[in-house]
Fold each of these.
Amino acid sequence: MQKFRTSFLFGVSFMSIILTISLDFSMFQENLTWANEPVKLIFDTDIGNDVDDVLALAAIHALQNRNECELLAVTITKDNKYAAPVAEQLNTFYGRSDVPIGIVKDGATKEDGNYLVQVYNTKDTNGNRCFPSKITAESSDIPDAVNVLRKTLTAQPDESVVVVQVGFSTNLARLLDSPADDISPLNGKELAKKKVKLLSTMAGSFAKQQGEYNITCDVKSAQKLFAEWPTPIVFSGWEIGMAVQYPTASIKNEYNYVPNHPVQIAYKSYRQSLDKTTPAFDPTSVLYAVRPERDYFGLSEPVDVTFDDNGVTFFKPNPNGKSRYLTVTPEQIVRTSEALSGLCSEPPKK
């Protein structure tokens, strides 16, 4: 299933997946236009399964450099010992080693994948590890993701947090089920409703009826999450990432300001080349979450979204629906790809 998301990379016609629906979403858009202050962001990721999670995290750090967002926490839905260390290596590389990290317990996709070990073990010419982290592959005290979510949300002002989910639904579904505790007198659903203003998620397939990887890996959690989540949801579907490709010119040329760059190493290890484009599935959810008003995407009408037991997306119009999905025109594809390549390749502030 891991390769499903990219198996059509060179065979799918962009024009068959471009959505050009033009709808009146002004009221929704107005409600999701942020004030002139950094977007408070939680990044929930299955880092290690596809390299777009790494690109998305790099984009978040670039946006924080510009004071457009604040990364509050990273929570991980891939149950692998290298996932949290690599996430912290990336945060440390970008100068933010203090960002809390939580990991799923008894989650999906336990395999190492194609780049976690490579990034984790990269050494310089003296044989020293290039990318430091306090968390190691042997760490046994990494906080549970649900606890990190509860602590992070509790500490924030009401309706101030945007959650970007670009992996499985495991952590957020478990958050909804979490009871009141010494962290907060609110249960998980009450806490999400009180603190979160938007869930921006890479999930589903809205232009082609098929199972989508982030859904199929934990269908039950996805069914629960998207039925019960109490705030607006914006989906970046499979077709958006397939349309918005990450440029090879960027990955080959714009990361060479250091001898070893974790994003470039992860990309080359995953794609087995720097000469292949890769779908920008996850960075699109980040870009919308932080810059919803910049016309990188269009939005569908309000819909109700459900998933069957095979992870296939079903949606139907509902004027009172809490969900929308992203659309793109050919012009937006070009703008979005250019914006992402500039953000993802931006050097650390320090």
Amino acid sequence: MTGRILFIDDDQAGREVALFNLRKAGYEVAAASDGREGLAAFSPEKFDLVVTDVKMPGISGIDVLRRIRSQAPDVPVLVITAFGNVETAVAAMKEGAYDFIGKPFHRDQLLLSVGKAFERRRLAVEVHDLRIRASGVEREIVSVSPAMKRVLEVADRVAATEATVLITGESGTGKEVVARRIHVRSPRAEGPFVAVNCAAIPGELLESELFGHARGAFTGAVRDRAGRFRQAARGTLFLDEIGEIPLPLQAKLLRALQERVVDVVGSDRPVPVDVRVVAATNRDLHERIREGTFREDLYYRLNVVEIRVPPLRERPEDIPPLVERFVQDIGAGREVAVPPGVMGEIKARPWPGNVRELKNACERMVILCGGTEVSLEDLPPLPAHGRVPETGGAAEGGGDEWPPLPPEGLSLVDLEKKVIERALRLKGGNITQAAAFLRIPRHVLVYRIEKYGIRRDA
């Protein structure tokens, strides 16, 4: 039996006996000698159950119960009351305690109450997961890279809070998937997840779309409309492409975030809203602030916690498992394999459209595949600027300079990294030969390999 318990009691002798019995039963237990110490030690990620005495100096057990219930309503709390003190026990149950134990208590009584609390939590988690799966909100995130593991770790940590989150990253990296993960792991998971693409709605209609309108507010407003803020009540509102929201509307969005009310178009009465906002953008909002097209105060209100989703070129380890998952899902039962040669070509490509482009390429491969293995011919054709040539010199056929420069620009750092990776592959991972090939000192190449985190077998 496993489970993480925080045991709070100012009675040292009773605390030590309880810790001994709980640990012997297989639980992981941390102890606190009073309410202040217990609250400082508690976090929803660290503990599955809290057991607290009611009568303690300073912060009482009832205060501890209230604070934990507000911070982590899913974590059950058992309270320890003096034997026969029914009033205290009733007060604790009204505040949301799972159960109470009379003091002094027997070992079997403690273990029975703790076991029931864990069983209830397990069932609650199962019901929650079933509801989420049935709703279709969550999308599986396939990742093995340290960069994405860090993204998911931060997302899971912030999910338990009410903080506004700003998710940044290039187009196609999976920002909405991360937003959905935050929602399903939050206390609002059973509420709606409402997504709005701010770039897809004309500016003159976006205010009504977000905040709603009253009947007769404008031509065509034949009935009241709740708006997305109110549709997401007790849930999460995902504002995608937040950088595209018109400047005049930004002040109203800031008021909605700060005051938790919306001003309905055509109405003079603000409407309270209970919603958690997660925003996303592929734009540089700092640059937009400098240009005067994005409010600085709105940026800081949205950016309580920022999560940057890295592009595929920064996490090439994720490409093979993503390809396998996409091919499996798109194949719909067909046994379609991706041979090493094709996988190597896929890993070598830049994928400027990131995961979205990779998924589309996998769909094309599965559709065009005539047998049980995809081939290089099934891959989409590569743009002229999409690959670093193996050798220098002018581009073929027109005397253009190498490498060809795409109109949208390119990253010099990424280009240097790719050239080093290709040189290492060409020389079988031999650093000395690769350095000679690149015409740089060996120690300079070693420095750049460490700087960019390049594997010698990349």
Amino acid sequence: MSIITLVRPPCLISKGTLQGPITPPIGVAYLASSLLKAGHEAHIIDALGEAPFRHHPCFKGRMIAIGLSVIEILKRIPPRSEIIGLSCMFSQDWPYSHRILKAIRVQFPDALLIAGGEHVTAMADDLLRSCPEIDLCVLGEGEEAVVDIANALAAKGDFSRVAGLALRRNGNLLVTEPRARLRALDEIPPPAWELTPIHQYLDNDLGYGVDLGRSMPILATRGCPYQCTFCSNAAMWTPRWYARDPARVLDEIQHYLTHYRATNIDFFDLTAIVKREWILEFCALVKSRGMHFTWQLPSGTRSEAIDRDVCRALHEAGCRNMTYAPESGSPEVLRRIKKKVDLKNLMRSMRGAIREGMNVKTNIIIGFPDETKREVWQTIRFVCKMALAGIHDVSVSMFSPYPGSELFNQMKAAGKLPPLDEGYYLSLSSYTDITATIGWSENLTSRQLAFYRIFALLAFYSLQYAARPWRLVLLIVHFLGNKQVSRLDKSLHDFLKRKDDLPSA
């Protein structure tokens, strides 16, 4: 038996970011459950969940870390820990995660220090060269790998025989045999929420989506079958999508409703709705079991399988908020970024969702490397069209060359990226910060992109409230009553709450 401590670092955001996602650590909770099932001793340090309202200005005031300080994290790690693992999913978090790893190494010089997550998977070679504190990098899904690492340590075995790792061997980088994707998702033990401060999230109505009450996260599927060139998911998950049995998903939800008194479920899936038959079966089971809860799809979904009948079934089964991800209103841009979406079908799907009572948000990205002014204006026209169609919210983000994505690899190979240092990783946070636009376009300056971004947002909300003035009244009522229905409600609440907390940090 090995003793393993898994660390979920604080959330790192830029000062101008509207919304900092304060979400339960579903990734490390899954890892811990697999370790427990294999007979190992597991601990979780959720630095975000243990102090979700504590904000630390850092990196010369440019960034804000939400959660425990580095010293507090160190104090919570059990001294007997033989393996200490850190999860780094997002590349903009890496500079702070690097600080944590350095501090852990000083205090625990003999522990095996491992790292995993999407950023680690994409940049394992760079991390092993620039961060000597790390012993092993876990590539891709970690449930099986972390158990194999713990078993190898207990047996004093050779880590080079463990699949899905990157490590150093005789001063060189060694990548072990690739590990196959997990397909039997229902055989993975459920997340070990009992090891996390889950009640901090539940009692304070914290979650990924809009605040609809006590929210628990769930994964019904893993992966995404699409290969958008700006997205890093393929490096982590491969372009394969696997779904759980809908009945087993509902069994887990029922446990959350009963054991944790949850009232809402946030689906953390990359692309939850791919197969029409799956989602219709899930909705039918919700009704046949007589279950009553709300649920959301906050991370974005596709439109191909969502017609008016599916929208009706979703709403009847309790779905209240959906996010679509068209990314661009330019057919040429969509073709280049391999975003296989038909804008007419997408608009039809979104209108159907609105008619059936859903609150709909969309994600837009501008500033792709070869995007032109004409193509940006095509996207702005599409944003205006969505506003008039009744879409409730839109985010207009800046393209960032994200590690692990196809565009990142192309730009790196062409020498179009600066050194991958602390400054570069911190700059990636600008994609959600309207006060810090960083452009990577060959045809548009950062200043031009900042104008287009703000213009698109102003145009969207001006047209929406002009066409539906009651929504502006509701926004004010919700704000004064501390109620959330739309993603704008949530963003305003989170941003102002963070501003209130900063002086005491």
Amino acid sequence: MANEPTPFVPVFSIDVTAETSKNSSPTPSPKTNDIGTALIGLTRQLIEMQNRQNVLLEQLLQVNKQVLQSSNQAATQRQTEVNQWRESHPKLVRSCKQALESLSSVQIDFLQTLADEVEDQKENLEESEYAFNDFLDRYGPRMAHLNGIIQVLGHLGG
């Protein structure tokens, strides 16, 4: 394992062999000073990058805050307009509520029919692309349109 090649080239290396000298106090070698200087430089760069990242995150938070405020203002404006429309057309609002109730029961029946069809044709739908596409063609557009109409009536009659 120790002889396996590494996937990266080391930036620096440290010599850990013991040196004996005739003097009793060891002096740091020039290599050690270079390593210390390099580590200090790398640490400073790391700190600078972290500070830059903090500044960018603060800017991102400000942008997100502005987008959220804009979105809230737009939603409030839309709700105000819908409420004004409802006040201007009370008879239509009542009609939309009644239509929504009726279509909700139609939707329940439609979903039950769809679920029954899936249960009856389960094997066919899994094995035959034609049967699956036919199923989607029969039920998909009707469901999409019905859901769209119910959504509009819900907003208007809400």
